[in-house]
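Notes from the 1:1 (GR / supervisor)

We went over the backlog. Supervisor wanted to see one worked example end to end before approving the batch request, so GR pasted a single chain during the call. The sequence is below; no edits were made to it. Supervisor asked that the structure be written out right there so they could see what the output format looks like.
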Amino acid sequence: MKRILLITSILFLGISAIKSQNTCADQLKVAQRRFDDGLLDDIPQLLSNCMKDGFTKEEKANAYKLLIQTYLFSEQTEKADLEMLKFLKEFPNYSIAVNDPKEFINLYSTYRTKPIFKVEIKGGFNFCMPKFIEPFGVGNTSKSHPAYKSKLGYNVEVNFINKLYKDFEYSIGASLILSNFDYSNKPFEYSTVTGTFKNNYLGLPIAVRYNYKFKTVNLFTKVGLEFVYLFQSSVNLTRTDINVGRSEPYTGIENLLLSHKKFDVRPLLAIGTALKVRNAQFLITAGFKFSTKTQLNRQKTYLNPLLQEKYFFAEDELLLNQSFISFSYIRPIYKPKKIR
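Structure output shown during the call:
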């Protein structure tokens, strides 16, 4: 019995919703006919009950346009402005259509309809690409050949974006970069040392982006600087010896933060494409960041003697460049207002 009552209630609500929608669609048609006949006085009342939730999205946009025209032809400009503000708040990214009424277009043009700024939420992957500058070690460094290998890292970023000039935009934001790379070396004939470096940074990216269109594809190029602060740095080391009486390797995770410079400035270059999905915009970006300062503080290379004694390890001087690919969601922020 309860199941029958539930099904009956759902059917009743569905039928009521369809009936309401049809009624509002009919009301809009009646209002349009009244407008065409010059009978303007009753139009606001005909549409008022449906403006909250009775129309589809398209019907509601058309109802707003009809109300705005009605008030304009009735010389009630304050009410027309009020309805235009409601329209722009509900349809902030509206673009003028070829069949829009002239009166509506003229009033629309007196409002600020562009976003005042945009917010970009970005996430992606990076590959640290160490550039060897100078070796350090516990033995004869001319005979050792350290090798470095890129490893997958992650980055997240939030940016404030605004228009600079024509097709140029500028952005400023905050980023978190988790960077990793692998290391291997043979400091002595009987010993092999391997490790994974982990460096975590906070960043302040500042950039300029140029947007352009190639046929039907939206593209952009981006240049800028990222000011980064190193707040965590460690290496997971393994030393394996051969034929020296010990079969178990020496392993451990060691903190390197005290022997590192904390700040770096990284120029960045990037290209990408912009995709529109309904009212949302998504970006796919690929680029490169150039490290301008070596991370190792030379005066503190041998600060931790355990690294040399236990692992036969001394950190080399490197530039830590990065390639990256990221995916962004951009949300425009609108604040429509009368500008003339």
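Supervisor's comment: Residues 1 and 20 are 28 Å apart (CA to CA).
Batch request approved.
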